[in-house]
Amino acid sequence: MKKNNFIGVNMNKKVIYISSLLHDLGKFLERSKQYVNNYIKNKYSDIRYSHPRYSKFFVEQLSKKIDWLSIEEWENISKIVGYHHQPNDFDTKIIQLADWLASAEREEQELEEFNYINDKLESIFSNMSDYNEQYEYDISVLNFDNMMPMFEFNCEINRYIDILSKFLEDIGKVRDEEEVLFILEKYCSYIPAQTRQYRSDISLYDHSKLTAAIAICLFNENKNGFIDNAKIDKIIQELQKMMEFKKFNKDQDNSDFKENLLTYLEDKLLDEHFILIKGDISGIQKFIFNVPSKKAAKSLKGRSIYIMLLTQLIAQYIIDQLNLTKSNILYCGGGNFYILSHKSAENKLKEIEKRIMQLLFKHHEEKLSCNIGYVSMKIGDFLLSEKIWKESSNEVNRKKLTKFNYILKEDFNKLFLPTDISKSIQTCDICKMEIKEKSTEKESDSLEIVLCDMCNSFISLADESKNAKSIIISKKTNSEDNKNTYKSIFNELGYDIKFSNDSHSSSNLINVYKINDFDSNKWILGSFYLPNKTFDDLADKNKIAYLKLDVDNLGTIFGKVKNPSLSRISTLSRQLNLFFEYYLIKLVEKENLQEDLYIVFSGGDDVLVIGRLKKLFDFSLKLREKFKIFTAENPNLTFSAALGVFDVDFPVINAIYEMEHLLKKSKSIIYYDEKDTIKIPRKNKITIFNQPFSWKELEYIKELYDKLYNFIDQNKENKRSILRKILLASEKYNPLIDGPKGNEINNQKIWKMRYYLRNIKDKKNLKQKEEIIDIYEKMWLKNYYFSDEKPIKNHQILNVAAKILDLEIRKK
Ligand SMILES: [Zn+2]
């Protein structure tokens, strides 16, 4: 692209950033109805719309409290937020354009608002092409208790009042621009950015954040000489025409709207000023799980925390290097990140990619790498972004194939020349890298395994973060010691991290990130906690269980977003990640399972937890139920899971491969009544003891388990033998269903089983035995004769319930 020659506009990055974050905050104040409207109207009579008047009023009040911006800077911010709907200078135009692009899903021009204070934020999951139900959030702060949308939630009280005063207090105390972003996340995550006329499924936080990200890109494009006043005017004009086109289409009730828009955009809004960067850490699975069973608990945890921090710090490194802000990280979770950047960053990005590649290669050789891909974004792509989102993934996948290109050219020797084999070399028992100096004895002596400094440092990482309340992340340029540890990798990126167990003393530092705590200035989410138990302690008589799950049909879900603007796509990703990276971890805490469940990782869209089978069984049911509510009961949003039981000293990596196989089973089995229709989501199952079940069937298993448990409990003296017989009976008389379609109950077999169980020698508990058979039989009868739905298709429910119980009583 040709660099334009124009008179440089003297803009201040901080001013652009804060203005774009606060441009719509007036809506918050206005809706609270705590201010005299006429006063504000008269005071800012030259401002045409209502909310910018309030935004300006808000900024003017705030400027009296915050002293890390100069009077001149505050004046500029106040001007920009006040006139962002009627701009006449370049920096205000930047915010207007950013605002429009961030809200590209809006269907009409904004009108003066009046009756809107009771409008709630709709769940992004309830506004999809084949699902449209009104699930809404209460106006409230971001925390565990407020994360569930409610169906046709109605609240006539003005809920803005409840959170306004605390918000004003907190925002008045922010110490840097990053804290502004965090405070907005806390208070504006459940406030709709839009009310009336629009689908309000984008929060004021998500809208402000994306507006800031876009504005910062435009700021950089200007600084690098690629966008000027004339160009901004041209884009704004084109966008205005496009909005008229959208409105016209809407009035015609045109069902091919998306198609038409696509055609419309073919030769319009083609300017490329943005790139969407995707980063993806690859090799994670092998890297985390290829550890010996001894000390596995800590090794796994340390490695998974390292991956989590590495992903975040690489994203941080990129935004720091490209002169972006935290708002430009659209998503970060599960070893992935998406960053919105300016187009003129391309060359710099290539250098950054190479640096990261070399850094990871130096420390992990080919075992771990970060693939970075990017796609150019046209202005029009903000309106239909799911394509761009997908293309950036394709770009990353393409990179994976050529990932050692950089290395091959420059570090050829490192890759292919064997180390000097003439002298005997010692290698690390985990990563097999050569150990140059013998590592600290005390870490590894008692275990009879030898670890390199790096692998040892992952174990210390698990120890350090174990009871940590916060992480302190600071900038650092050179490493203090030359030991090869996880810290030295972060140091080489320019960061230093420390964990702190103290919840108070460190909180006055500006770079403290509280772990999973929204009641703070800044936070970091993720699973850092480690139970005070080894795998041996967690096991039932030498048996330990794994729960692995991930979200089904993710690609299809993104395809179902209506008017898939960049706002909607990133909101959807953020919400899904929030469930796994925060909600799940808090749920474990609230259910008091912290010492029983070992969360190896949880983030993005997948989870791995290790623990006792029964605890994991109950937890998976609970999590499924919560996920359903979290995603507005949208039938397209499901996850599949697998529960596997292994000997405690079975190699973790082999267990993981087996778990993957079981998860595949959950996702591939299709019940006969799922074949006819594409509407019922397939997958959505859980495999346990090698048997796939629907989640409904899992509830039946739970019911049977409880009955069996009570029965066994009352027959203490010979419970093992009774259970054996039940196990045998449930196996022997399977299948209980016959018929050409496998859907007719075999009464004879039910009777035989009843007879068999009766013959269990101990006659005195006949009544309870009958009860169990009764329940089982009723489940079947109800299932096959009285229900059209036929919730039970896998007859192994009794057998699996007995097997879980068998493991449970074995431990005592
Ligand atoms: Zn090692």
Summarize, please.
It comes from candidate division WOR-3 bacterium. The chain is 48% helix and 13% strand. It is of the alpha+beta class and 812 residues long.
Overview of the molecule:
48% of the residues lie in helices and 13% in strands. The protein is of the alpha+beta class. Among the domains are: 13-227, no CATH class; 272-403, 2-Layer Sandwich (Alpha-Beta Plaits); 426-524, no CATH class; 694-812, no CATH class. The strands form seven sheets. A six-stranded mixed β-sheet has the order 17-18-16-19-20-21, with helices on both faces. Helix 25 (652-668) links the parallel strand 19 (639-647) and strand 20 (685-688). Helix 1 (13-22) runs parallel beside helix 8 (177-188), helix 8 runs antiparallel to helix 9 and helix 23 (566-590) packs antiparallel against helix 24. It is globular. The structure holds zinc ion. Zinc ion (ZN) binds next to helix 19. Residues 542-691 form the GGDEF domain. InterPro entries: Cas10-Cmr2_palm2, Cas10/Csm1, Cas10/Csm1_subtype-III-A, Csm1_B, GGDEF_dom, HD_domain, Rev_trsase/Diguanyl_cyclase. Belongs to the CRISPR-associated Cas10/Csm1 family.
